[in-house]
Amino acid sequence: AEGDHLLSVEDIDAYYAQSHILRNLSMHVEEGEVCALLGRNGAGKTTTLRSIAGAHPPEVRDGVVRYKNDDITDYSTEDVSSLGISLVPEERRVFPNLSVGENLHLSDVARNWSNVVGRTVSMDHPGMSTEEVYEVFPRLEERESQKAGTLSGGEQQMLAIARALKQDTDLLMLDEPYEGLAPQIIDTVEDAIARIAETGTTILLVEQNAVAAMNIADRAYVVDQGEIVFTGTSEELRTDEETREQYLGV
Ligand code: ATP
């Protein structure tokens, strides 16, 4: 039944002003899985994540986003994040003039402040400690006192993901974590994502790099021009040459 999914996006239509971007888009994410949303440049991947996260724009004018059966379509980004849904955007927001350690510490400050102002922090997933984050990303511990702005692209990506993990995260949404990374660094980030998945965190991975995403995803959706054109396991996508050639160019 629809109600059994951790997250379900049901027939949403999303717009930037008059531009109709997502058309009747439906997808779901099961608890504990790694789910990939793939597609070319401009296909509507980021728009889908922003629609789930309650970001404006875009505006969701039709359809429903459900999380654990609750209708969260009209929730603000703050309310969505207080449910344990974290979005790591493409731009890898870190504070460039602060050290790695200070960037991580700021997440604790933000969390404590949320408690002060009365936001609920899930006790099931209180967020990782800095020590736990360093176990996932040993590279960050080595660079604890380095300014975040001087980290490589891959290290900044790790730090952006690490900051999300310090909040209570049940569902981690990653927007193109491999973008601009050298193959070797992609492997490192990939390993880290796999390790995060092993801790029970559900992951929705948005990627243009379909080959890398299929390495760690259980299931995949392909979006094209705002519509879902493929749903299946990574294995099914791997053997579906027509879909790969037509929509992913691989
Ligand atoms: P990319 O890999 O390039 O990030 P994407 O699949 O994430 O691609 P989206 O960012 O979701 O694609 O964009 C989908 C469509 O919406 C594109 O045609 C884009 O030009 C348009 N779009 C995105 N943001 C806006 C905006 N703020 N205002 C108007 N149109 C937008």
Automatic annotation (TrEMBL):
Domain called ABC transporter: residue spans: 7-250
Protein's GO biological process: L-amino acid transport
Gene Ontology MF term list: ATP binding; ATP hydrolysis activity; branched-chain amino acid transmembrane transporter activity
UniProt KW ATP-binding keyword: yes
Entry annotated with the keyword Ligase: no
Keywords: Amino-acid transport, ATP-binding, Nucleotide-binding, Transport
Family per record: Belongs to the ABC transporter superfamily.
Record's protein name: Amino acid/amide ABC transporter ATP-binding protein 2, HAAT family
Species this protein is from: Halobaculum gomorrense
Native organism taxonomy: Archaea, Methanobacteriati, Methanobacteriota, Stenosarchaea group, Halobacteria
Part of the full-length chain shown: 58 to 307 of 307
